[in-house]
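ok trying again, last paste got cut off:
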Amino acid sequence: MLVALGLTKSFGGFTAVADVALSVEAGAIHAVIGPNGAGKTTLFNLITGVLAPSAGRLVFEGHDITGWRADRVTARGVARTFQNIRLFREMTVVENVMVGAHCRTSGGFLAAIAQPPWRLSPGERETIRRADDLLELVGLASKRDVAADLLTLVEQRRLEIARALASGPRLLLLDEPAAGMTPPEIEEANRLITRIRDRGVTVLLTEHHMSLVMQVSDRITVLNYGKKIAEGNPETVRRDPEVLAAYLGVEQGVESGVEA
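nice, full thing came through this time. structure:
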């Protein structure tokens, strides 16, 4: 579904992502892990058009999207959440999700004039129906009319996921979806990510909670200082000597529950 070839991003004399090759299979949950500063978020920014690469190519479903603007990438079928939550805090929960569907809605000046203000258009009714469906998926149906600012941290992260899904992506990037969560909340995040995949959305995620990564991922890519140092299934990565030395710690390893 997604292929990165020689992807590189430099900021002056500092290279945040260096010659990274990545292949994400359709229908998979693929994790990118690494210590702080490894280049994970920069990689996500390159894939989603927030940043343009210094070198390399990005191909999504056979289309070269290298250097595309973020809105074009979203319209093509790639959506994301952010490590630092970015909601419209004074809008309601359902309104936040409806905003996420903007790239899939249509209308025009004449249609706006012809439509009575008290009557919803078919497109508006479908957008609301879709938003309510996604709120049910993430467990926020009972909070649909609550201001986003009044939600808990965990609920806000779920709302960001629902808003991203409202754009109708085939590939969803989740940037630390379990940050700040307790162990039971992490387990629920695990189940939610699996439900999203089961609905036909491929997931690419970065996360520091190794318990979640090892349980939910089909494949894992490991970055360190902007370079890919390992890749494989969870068991392969768990036992890779370079991963243990560079990221997890030789003596402690994944099974200790260390969070980098």
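cool. The two ends are 29 Å apart (CA to CA). Residues 1-75+206-260 form a domain with the Rossmann fold fold (CATH 3.40.50.300).
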